[in-house]
Amino acid sequence: MNQPLQTPAPANRLTSTRAGGKLVKDYWDNIFTARERGATVVWYNGAALNPIFQAMGIEWCHAEAFGARLAATHMEGPAQAMGEEYGYLRELCSYARTTLGCAVLTRREAENPASTAVADDMVLASRLPAPDLIVNAYAGCSTGQQWDEISYRIFDKSLPFFKVSYPLLWGNQPDFDYIKGEEWEAAARYVADQLRQLIAFLEHTTGRAFDWEKLREAMHYIKIAGQLRMDALDLCKAQPTPATFWDWVACIAPINFLPGNQDLVDFFAGVKTEIEQRVAEGIPALPRERYRLAFDGIMNWNKVGWLANKFAANDAAVVCGRYTHTSFWHEPHLIDVEDPLLGMAKHYLLCPFNHNAKVLGQLLIKDCEKYNIDGVVFHSTRTCRSASNGQMIMAKMAQKAGIQTMFFEGDVADASFYKDAILDTRLEAMLESIDVKAMAGR
Amino acid sequence: MIFENAAGSVDATVVRLLGTLSEAAAAPLEYVARWKRRTGRKAVGVLPMNFPLELVHAAGALPSLVQESSEAITDGRSLIYEFYCAYSRSLADQGAKGRLDVFDAIYAVDHCVALLGALDALRFAIEDRPIHLAQFPASMDEPASRVAVRERIAEMAAALAALTGTAPSAAALADSIALYNRDRALMRKVMDMRRAGTARISARQMQAIVQSAMVMDVAEHIAIMEQLVPALAQAAAGAPSGAVRLFLSGHYCHAPRPEVFDMIESCGVSIADDDLFTGYRFIATDVDATGDPLDALTDWYFNRNVTVPCGTRAQKTVDGADTLLTAIEASGSQAAIILLPKFCEPHMLYFPEIRKALLARDIPFLLIETEHEGLALEMLKTRVEALVETMKRGVAAH
Ligand code: SF4
Ligand code: SF4
């Protein structure tokens, strides 16, 4: 196999994604001052309900995203320590225990700001403004749903709290398939009805009327931004690829929770333009792309850079992934801007952890064909059974389709679950198998 | 445990009846196979935690709740990871080994992430029969949930009619509901006697009674329970031997290993009550026998979570920790043991709330994480003994 160099040439990361980092930072900085500005704040988990909050004129804090941000900036320690002190066992979803740790810290900070005297490294974890209301809309994962039951209890069961439920896209009926069949349509109608009830709940809680025109406007921008993102992803069919999965990871936060507005569109237009330029000029994401891989599983927030370097050092371009390519407004044609709720409901149902294993396998194989993938890397996420569900079956399906597979154990937000040596050995073995197969095919 | 009558001779009736129930509980798939041979009818494997068994029964099939197997997990490892709870891993393993082929279909209604993963794995292990998910929303607070549950129950009734050739009619459902209510009431009587100290029954035996009800033909179970209840009442209870009274809590969806109960009881403890799935949780709530049966089964789902709230549900108006405190006090227990299956997400999420409540009330407790294999019983025994010492001294420590 191709040996990594002593000092691997760095990956050629997209520069346009930096603008997204700035937008995201500004968004959080703004949230941190919500209390002083007298804004109404909702904490929510799961689906990208932000256009609804935007139209309602309330400020939204995606609790998971905050946990991810803490892990990505290696600031998760204090929140996790607080979670442990509160009684969470280490095997519990690290996303949930990080963010619930933040909730405990926020609660203490809100109760007695003078006395907490939080240590410097705790500052970020305790900076979320305490919520005025809680909304949960977690598809697929029961933990995601129950996590806000606990948030609600941490805040003394005193806050208005609404939950949206989703059926897992299971497929009892023979006509069921991805975005097809009566079961799918019925599920979408059921979720859209709940969104209407959520809006009624928000109106009741805030005492204000919902602004449907603002929702249409937000969805107008989100639909365009979503399409630009998908177009940009498609451009990575080029060989060598102009951008990698790790670039797309940097685009998750903007598409997941930033306001639907012109800035969002401009950001994704910028990303697409940069990729178009790269394709036109033949600029690759990796100096030497030798392998094209897909990545399955939830993100490894505190290891993104580490993983990106590891694959780059092996000349392995991770081109696509479930978390980036099959989620986050990824079927923009489903959105009817004039009457957006049903299309929004459909996207919420299309959470990448809300499919059955067979559909997941089919989507994976489709992307492998589209992007000419040699092998799939499965991140078996120690504390996220939702992302881990179905992976072994997907791997069997991929192997049957002639695609190499490997597994490594990691985690969504707890760095202690990584075993570096195992990842190295397995990656090396898979890349060797890809070489052997390529030689046999010559 | 030996049952003695007033004359001091072993009450053979009790031993015999409990033996029959224990056998079905310990070898459920063999029971199902025998039942099918005997009746020539179909059997449906159902998954915990809220499945309305009455529906399958009214469609003329045997509903049998799939239990964790004591077999080592081998083949199932190629379907789901090792960091899943024992029950979900065992389910996948039993499916991969063909053990569940005795069932003509598998049905589930519950939302727990590990359970759904295991059910999906079963679809690949058992390709030739229906694996039906009629997912009940886990959030109990919204009006939309009730409508959805009612629809799922109706869909299941239609699917069962296609499977068995017998539609679960309103009359058949009313009969099934009456039977299951009767069985639950009989089991509750035994629990009442245990709580009152008028029947000496071990935790292992109590669990066998409930677990067998999950597995067996309900009429057959009732027939045994109707003999067992009076026999137990007659058997001299004896004083509860001054043993320390303890409450068992947890295990939302499957049976703890009976060896754990034996170990706990060997520390001079008597189990006064529990909220285990294979205990009070399973039998606590009856189905309304009047009105539309599908409505009644829908109500039952929501009522169950009020009687004994479950961490796998999301309901802001009830609290498992409060219910637990009330149950501990009502049973006169001096302490609690929380049995938490390793990797059980919902239980891990709720545990701090439970801990907070117990600490606030100064109730001594012990957390035991259970596993499929390799339970260090001797080590656990030391911890239970320490808890018993604490209780005897009347000091709350954790
Ligand atoms: S287990 Fe996974 S999907 Fe579920 S809440 Fe945690 S991170 Fe989200
Ligand atoms: S409730 Fe707990 S033990 Fe039961 S299937 Fe879910 S995770 Fe496993």
Word description of this protein:
The complex is a heterodimer of chains A (442) and B (398). Chain A is built from 20 helices and eight strands. Chain A is globular, with a radius of gyration of 22 Å. Chain A has helices at 17-32, 34-37, 50-56, 63-72, 77-86, 94-111, 113-116, 142-154, 182-206, 212-234, 245-249, 252-257, 262-281, 304-313, 322-325, 341-349, 357-370, 385-388, 391-400, 420-441, and strands at 41-46, 59-62, 133-137, 161-163, 291-296, 316-321, 375-381, 404-410. Chain A has 442 residues and is α/β, with parallel strands linked by helices. Residues 1-6 of chain A have low confidence and may be disordered. Chain B is of the alpha/beta class and 398 residues long. Chain B has helices spanning 12-26, 28-39, 53-58, 86-96, 113-125, 143-164, 170-196, 203-215, 218-234, 258-265, 280-283, 293-307, 320-330, 345-360, 377-393, and strands at 43-46, 62-65, 105-108, 131-133, 244-250, 269-274, 335-341, 365-370. In chain B, the strands form two sheets. Chain B has a four-stranded parallel beta sheet. In chain B, strands 6-5-7-8 form a four-stranded parallel beta sheet, sandwiched between helices. Chain B is globular, with a radius of gyration of 20 Å. The chains are: A alpha/beta (442), B alpha/beta (398). Chains A and B meet through helix 8, strand 4, helix 9, helix 18 and helix 19 of A and helix 5, helix 6 and helix 14 of B. Bound molecules: iron/sulfur cluster (2 copies). One iron/sulfur cluster binds at residues 85, 87-88, 112, 114-115, 252-253, 312, 341, 344-347 of chain B. Chain A: Pfam families: HGD-D (PF06050). Chain A: Belongs to the FldB/FldC dehydratase alpha/beta subunit family. Chain A: Keywords: Iron, Iron-sulfur, Metal-binding.
